[in-house]
Amino acid sequence: MTVIAMNPSSTDSHSATHEASNPPLAVSLVVPVVERSQDIEAVYHAYTSILDKLSLTFECIFVIDGGDRRVMNVLEALPSTKCPLKIIPLPYYFGESMALAVGFEQAAGDVIITVPPYFQTVPEGIEQVLKRLDEGNDLVVTKRWPRVDAWFNRLQTRMFHNLVNRLTGQSLSDLGSGLRAMKRPVAKEISLYGDLHRFLPLLAYQKGFRIAEVEIPQHTADSQHRVYRPGVYLRRILDLLTVVFLFKFTKKPLRFFGLIGSGLFAVGFCVSALLALERMLGVTSLSDRPLLILGVLLMVLGVQVGSIGLLGEIIIFTHARKLKEYTIRKFYR
User: Fold this and answer.
1) How many CA atoms within 13 Å lie on the side-chain side of 197?
2) Quick one: average pLDDT of 305-327?
3) pLDDT by residue (tens digit) across 70-95?
4) What is the dihedral of CA 262, 263, 269, 272, to 10 degrees?
5) Are 30 and 104 in contact (CB under 8 A)?
6) What is the β-pairing status of strands 85-89 and 4-5?
7) Rounded distance between C-alpha atoms, residue 61 and residue 280, angstroms
8) Is the pLDDT reported for residue 151 higher than 50?
9) Which one of 18, 63, 144, 206 has the fewest CB atoms closer than 10 angstroms to its CB?
């Protein structure tokens, strides 16, 4: 991974060196460049102007998934007088989660703000996000509201979040909104991979951080009709199942696998018992009943699934000392 630092005073790629040689930064603006990068120059000027107006010391970090040369040329032509500017091209397409993880690793600010490389919400919303963060929250996510895009977009968003909230017990409304602000410990504690960036607030809540959601008007440039391929919807569902498992069963896998295994075993037992009863009453013979094989297989499968949960519990128990489920906000004495 190559880091191109546009500010001569921050040529070192590691944030620790930056902190040692420069004044502390209040904000790191992290932009994962994964899609829709046509307006990236305008995005840079819009957000840096607002941070300038707020009199905050800040840096900009652009992580370019796949190292698009066109985007690189645009970013390298940006003026570096406003703030330290880091451009990080990734050699392959790793996805938005990896781009964000790289940006978090390089960030030196006390507060990390993520924005998409296009206008998804109005840039002025960044002031409200920082205000809610100052109220004691650890992570502030945004909800695009009022929406200006097509009714179909709003419908699929509502259906997806109803499912997410029902499965996790939370009340989030717009996990797809890329404008977020978080304190440094949040970015340090959360591990992002695959497509889990969308579920960052859920992962942060699981670690004990305070989460808040604020409504920010949707930008008119984000109003296009969005219909994805069936594979994308399937991946979203699988990602959601992953998060639900991490959210509820990471430390107690036996409850998840044990419940499924018990159900399979119970169905198999009932089928086998019914056939055995019919045989005892002389209603039918067992030699020509394939249903008996199904019943036995279900019982064996139930035992195997339950055994996976038991092995998971043993692994969790033996590594329990290395697992940390909490965050300590402050020591008072």
Assistant:
1) 23
2) 82
3) 999 999 998 777 789 999 999 989 99
4) -150
5) yes
6) antiparallel
7) 75
8) yes
9) 206
